[in-house]
Amino acid sequence: MNTDHDPPGPEAAAPAVRVRGLTKTFGGHRALKGIDLDVPAGHVLALLGPNGAGKTTAVRAITTLTRPDAGTVEVAGHDLRRNPGGVRASLGLSGQYAAVDERLTGHENLRMVAMLYGMGRKEARRRSWELLRRFRLDDVAHRRAGHYSGGMRRRLDLAGALIADPSVVVLDEPTTGLDPRGRMDTWEVIGGLVSGGTSVLLTTQYLEEADQLADSIAVIDRGEVIARGTADELKTRVGGERLELVVEHAADLETARAALLVAGSGPPDSDPQARRARAAVTNGRKALGDVLTALDEQGVPVLDVALCRPTLDDVFLELTGHHTGDDGADAGPDAGADHGGEARP
């Protein structure tokens, strides 16, 4: 299935990140199979897929941490092969886990990164405090990072990725391991980056994250981009509505599944622990009435019922045959590893 959009014409503005035909093989395994990506300026592109799909391998290739076997990468107009230094100078990278020195304070961490970028002491101090205030860390600036919460360490890591004011920020599963509050804080930070004109390439396996943050989404599975578009466009492609209900008694779940099978347009999914069944339907209102009537006639108490649009998980299931929570093919020895930290000169 070819789902790629046509490449932009000569009149279109050049994307902040342009990837064409990117491939990478580890041993006999092709982790990337010729992927194409565009991240327009001031835009968030989410690369969505399960663990092992190739997301982190793509990030490592784009950010010069892994040499691709073939393909081209341009970041802010700099070609990866001809000018890797220009690529590194144009982007900031935050990996799956916050790469901070826990023995140093927040201020010392950022000042160290700034000096690694070649800033003088005065400029490094100024930039460090500017970012500490921006990320609401100025009140703990002199506390060792080892005493920070997970969300605070993530904000400090993101601040480090921005120390040189890059035009492109690459975030590899930035909320992995965070609690809900830390995840919301990180989303707020990413939203602030984009409102300031920064372009963001975001990899994630969290559907809600892609739905919340991304201007567009590229779905990757087994090293290939299998679909792309906005969240709404991808959901529209799946089509139809979803009828979901929760029964009072677990013993009635099979009866509910049978009613959904009759009224739906495909086999229903079920969650025995939650006593929930769900199916795609083509005529939502009629299916809702038919299912509730059938269950009422059989004396099945229904606690909750909902008629809703497809989710990104429905999209992924339709495209790949499995949910994003399932592991995909192994993307090579670097799959799932901690590549953390900022891209540095």
TrEMBL record:
Organism superkingdom: Bacteria
Any one GO MF annotation of this record: ATP binding
Bilayer topology term: Peripheral membrane protein
UniProt main location, coarse: membrane
Region (Disordered) location: 323-345
Localization terms from the record: Cell membrane
Pfam families: ABC_tran (PF00005), DrrA1-3_C (PF13732)
NCBIfam families tied to this protein: drrA
PROSITE patterns, per database record: ABC_TRANSPORTER_1, ABC_TRANSPORTER_2
Organism for this UniProt entry: Nocardiopsis coralli
PANTHER family from the UniProt entry: ABC TRANSPORTER ATP-BINDING PROTEIN, DOXORUBICIN RESISTANCE ATP-BINDING PROTEIN DRRA
InterPro entries assigned to the protein according to its UniProt record, in alphabetical order: AAA+_ATPase, ABC_transporter-like_ATP-bd, ABC_transporter-like_CS, ABC_transporter_ATP-binding, DrrA, DrrA1/2-like_C, P-loop_NTPase
Protein name: ATP-binding cassette domain-containing protein
Family: Belongs to the ABC transporter superfamily. Drug exporter-1 (DrugE1) (TC 3.A.1.105) family.
UniProt keywords, alphabetically: Antibiotic resistance, ATP-binding, Cell membrane, Membrane, Nucleotide-binding, Translocase, Transport
Stretches assigned to the ABC transporter domain: 17-247
Compositional bias segments (type: Basic and acidic residues): 336-345
